[in-house]
């Protein structure tokens, strides 16, 4: 009897977007958060009070990177974290 082992490789690992600093342009960051997360104004603003905050969970690499790029463009600091 032979035993075979397989390693599954997944190219589409879910990602999180974590906001670590909102920078000097709070209003612009809130606008990006509202657009990308579909949260309301109050919910988007309250995320800034709980840094580091996970603003998107379980999204594709492309969506996570696009969100981070947009946040960086308005002066915030954010990063993509792979879910393990």
How would you describe this structure to a colleague?
- By secondary structure, the chain is α+β, with helices and mostly antiparallel strands.
- It has a single domain (21-82), classed as Ribosomal protein L7/L12, C-terminal domain/Adaptor protein ClpS (Ribosomal Protein L30, Chain: A, 2-Layer Sandwich).
- The protein has helices at 26-37, 41-47, 61-73, and strands at residues 15-21, 53-59, 77-82.
- Strands 2-1-3 form a three-stranded antiparallel beta sheet, with helices on one face.
Question: What are the main properties of this structure?
Answer:
84 residues, alpha+beta, Ribosomal Protein L30, Chain: A, 24% strand
Give the arrangement of secondary structure elements:
Elements: E1 15-21, H1 26-37, H2 41-47, E2 53-59, H3 61-73, E3 77-82
Antiparallel strand pairs: 1-2, 1-3
Strand order of the largest sheet: 2-1-3
So how many helices?
Answer: 3
- What do the pLDDT scores average to? 90
Secondary-structure element series: EHHEHE
Give the total of domains.
1
Helix content class = 25-40%
């Amino acid at each position: 009897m032979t035993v075979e082992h397989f390693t599954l490789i997944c190219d589409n690992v879910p990602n999180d977007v974590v906001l670590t600093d909102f920078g000097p342009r709070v209003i612009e960051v809130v606008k990006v958060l509202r657009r990308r997360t579909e949260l309301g104004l109050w919910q988007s603003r309250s995320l800034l009070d709980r840094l580091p905050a996970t603003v998107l969970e379980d999204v594709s690499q492309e969506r996570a990177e696009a969100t981070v790029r947009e946040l960086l463009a308005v002066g915030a600091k954010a990063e993509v974290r792979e879910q393990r």
